[in-house]
């Protein structure tokens, strides 16, 4: 949910606290802007693949509901460049694979990019630029105000070091643009004390008598319920829901690549922490 929506929600709850929270999170909008991709061995191959092929084969080429895996499939990996060009230009009649004869001279770039996805060059499996992704993570979309990677960043939201470990690029992108609305990690609450002050934060602990909130800056607030005039829960997750609109496709790819790279860097740790996460969920 956007801050504007938060503010609306806050009005309904007549809570000033949420405005404060928004101020902390920041209302800064990230302009959607196309960034030039770095020069790549496959020329416009990646761009074409993402716009014409990924809808069926997935951004990482590993297949989807409408088309098979052409990245890790041995059958496809074994095909020669000529053979691949022929299939792509001519399609596979009688199946869902259309003919892309119109690609013309870009055809060889698409094949080159497909080869990259097949893992000739490990780093090329990343849909974007890891370094730029890192800059974004700690930069204008403010991910690091809530999330940490390898211990650096905020702690109000889940640690993301191992997040990319067993997920495809598509799944990671999905998690960023369509965050879980489940508030698995505790909802936000605005409380009003009897002396008229308002506070907001994430619910970290609650029992019949007391309530513990954590503010975005990490500080914990402990209240006795008897000293509260009232409290209201915010239904939505703290994770902004509008990154699909505020980040460009390139920026999302860069962030996804960064999350994939950190998972790869810390594979064993990631596997371990993933396991504990899963156990906690149960
Ligand atoms: C509308 C969905 C769709 C789109 C778009 C699409 N494909 Fe396919 N593709 C398929 C399906 C379905 C098959 C499986 C055909 C079969 O059964 O042999 C396939 C097969 C292939 C194969 C052969 C796999 C093998 O080894 O047998 C290649 C290579 C391939 N696609 C590449 C591409 C490329 C490159 C693009 C973009 C330029 C693309 N496809 C776009 C649906 C699609
Ligand atoms: C205002 C705090 C905040 C900001 C800013 C934020 N997130 Fe989140 N994010 C969260 C919270 C809280 C969750 C947990 C969602 C829930 O409530 O279940 C989450 C969930 C996620 C998840 C899924 C984690 C999991 O284990 O399921 C990913 C991935 C993620 N965020 C990535 C990002 C990225 C990338 C950015 C920056 C573009 C970002 N987030 C910015 C708070 C934030």
**Which molecules are bound in this entry?**
heme C
Please list the strands of the largest sheet in the order they lie side by side. Answer: 6-5-4-3-7
CA-to-CA gap between the ends? 27 Å
The amount of helix comes to: 40-55%
Catalogue the unreliable spans. Answer: 1-39, 266-282
Sequence of secondary-structure elements: HHHHHHHHEEHEEEEEHHH
Description:
The chain has 282 residues and is of the alpha+beta class. Among the domains are: 45-125, Cytochrome c-like domain (Cytochrome Bc1 Complex, Chain D, domain 2, Orthogonal Bundle); 128-182 and 240-281, Cytochrome c-like domain (Cytochrome Bc1 Complex, Chain D, domain 2), CATH 1.10.760.10. It has twelve helices and seven strands. It has helices spanning 3-12, 17-25, 45-57, 74-78, 81-90, 107-117, 130-137, 143-146, 169-177, 243-246, 249-265, 267-281; strands at residues 148-149, 152-153, 188-193, 198-206, 210-214, 220-224, 228-234. The strands form two sheets. The chain has a five-stranded antiparallel β-sheet. Strands 1-2 form a two-stranded antiparallel sheet. It starts with a helix and ends with a helix. The structure holds heme C (2 copies).
Short structural description:
The protein has 282 residues and is of the alpha+beta class. The chain is built from 12 helices and 7 strands. Among the domains are: 81 residues, Cytochrome c-like domain (Cytochrome Bc1 Complex, Chain D, domain 2, Orthogonal Bundle), CATH 1.10.760.10; 97 residues, Cytochrome Bc1 Complex, Chain D, domain 2.
